[in-house]
Amino acid sequence: MNRFYEAFIIKPGHKVDLSRRNPDETFDFKDKEAALELLAKNNHRIARLQNDLYSEGKQSLLIVLQAPDAGGKDGTINNVFSAMNPQGCRVQSFKTPTSLEQSHDFLWRVHPVVPRRGEVVIFNRSYYEAVLIERVHKFATPEQLEYRYKAINQFEELLEHNGTRIVKFFLHIDKEEQLRRFVRRLKRPEKHWKISANDYPERQYWDDYVEAFEVAMMKCSTKEAPWFAIPANCKWFRNLAVSQIILETMESMRIRLPAPSVDLQETRRLAAIELSRQRHERKNRKPAAKK
User: Fold this and answer.
1) What's the CA gap between 152 and 204, in Å, rounded?
2) Are 169 and 73 in contact (CB under 8 A)?
3) Which of 91, 164, 208, 252 is deepest in the core (most CB within 10 A)?
4) Is residue 27 part of a domain?
5) What DSSP letter does each residue of 58-116 carry, written as one string?
6) 3-state secondary structure (DSSP) of residue 46
7) C-alpha–C-alpha distance, residues 52 and 215, integer Å
8) What was the pLDDT predicted at 37?
9) How far apart are CA 260 and CA 69, in angstroms?
10) Which residue stretches of the chain have pLDDT < 70?
11) What is the pLDDT of residue 31?
12) Is 96 a domain residue?
């Protein structure tokens, strides 16, 4: 088990104190280039495993990304999953629930978009919003929140029982880093679309959000669906840590390629005949007449 897995996993039932976790952590990677080189190798191996997963068609992988605003969810997706085959990979974003979605239970909109067998799906935000923003702004009562934690664990157990491996990442940045990223967005026109009217007003609830994340991870990190708190102030280290954990998770799935559906010996014989025929035709083909 790699040191990223051990260092950042939230052990089931353990209290979570994010103030004791350093969002600037980079281990001993003082050289950014060395980390980027390892990230590229990881992404290549992840892409091969994803192709095998798609070919096998028996298991699936659900990756949940949660973070404060400007925490790096989009950047993680772009830098860790871009090498995957789009045929078997999908990103699902969760926005504010629609009136139709609000008229159902909080998991109603989630089940139809979980990964099918052979697929990798990345949730950019997720059903955990029901115990994060709704806890912070008191849209849900304490009793409702307790029910939701239990419902989430049951839902994830159901997915796991049906062959979906789940891994969940909290991208941990501090309040100062968030403000730096907000300000940088203002200076970059290509980032202006990310700016929200709620960016600065929501910062007054920073401590409440931290507490909400801590409680959610404590109550919903299980052996089958673990949470990882990833130091995310340093973007390249964030990407490397996520890739290492994804790689180890996929390797542990013991993906098996399906047996061929044809007689390979007979197919090789037919291929040899066809190659021989093609060589013969090429050899006997008359050259085109010159004009």
Assistant:
1) 28
2) no
3) 164
4) yes
5) S-EEEEEEE-STTSSHHHHHHHHSTTS-GGGEEEEE--SPPHHHHTS-TTTTTGGGSPP
6) helix
7) 36
8) 95
9) 47
10) 1, 286, 288-291
11) 78
12) yes
Confirm if 17 and 235 have CB atoms less than 8 A apart: no
For residues 89 and 68, is the Cβ–Cβ distance under 8 A? no
Place of tokens 């009562």: 141
Contact 8, 229 (CB under 8 A): yes
Our count of domains for the chain comes to 1
CA dist., res. 142 & res. 289, Å (int): 87
On whether residue 272 sits in a domain, the answer given is: no
DSSP alpha helix (H) spans, the chain: 3-8, 32-56, 73-80, 99-102, 133-136, 142-161, 175-187, 206-220, 235-252, 264-284
User: What distance in Å separates the CA atoms of residue 153 and residue 205, rounded to the nearest whole number?
Assistant: 26
Q: pTM for the full model?
A: 0.91
Q: Are strands 227-231 and 164-172 parallel, antiparallel or unpaired?
A: parallel
Measured CA distances, 120 to 48, 113, 166, 285 (Å): 13, 11, 10, 49
> In one letter, which amino acid is 286?
K
232 Cβ contact partners less than 8 Å away, ≥ 6 residues apart: 23, 67, 71, 72, 171, 172, 173, 238
Tokens encoding 105: 């239970």
Rounded CA separation 210/68 (Å): 9
Q: Indicate the residue type of 76.
A: T
Given this model, what pLDDT does residue 44 score?
A: 97
Q: What is the CATH number of the domain that holds 208?
A: 3.40.50.300
Q: Is residue 138 part of a domain?
A: yes
- What does the pLDDT read at residue 290? 65
Q: Which two tokens stand for residue 237?
A: 């280290």
Q: What pLDDT is recorded for position 285?
A: 78
Containing structural domain, residue 188: 3-262
pLDDT, tens digit (0-9, with 9 covering 90-100), for 94-147: 999 999 999 999 999 999 999 999 999 999 999 999 999 999 999 999 999 999
Instruction: Report the amino acid identity of residue 151.
Output: A
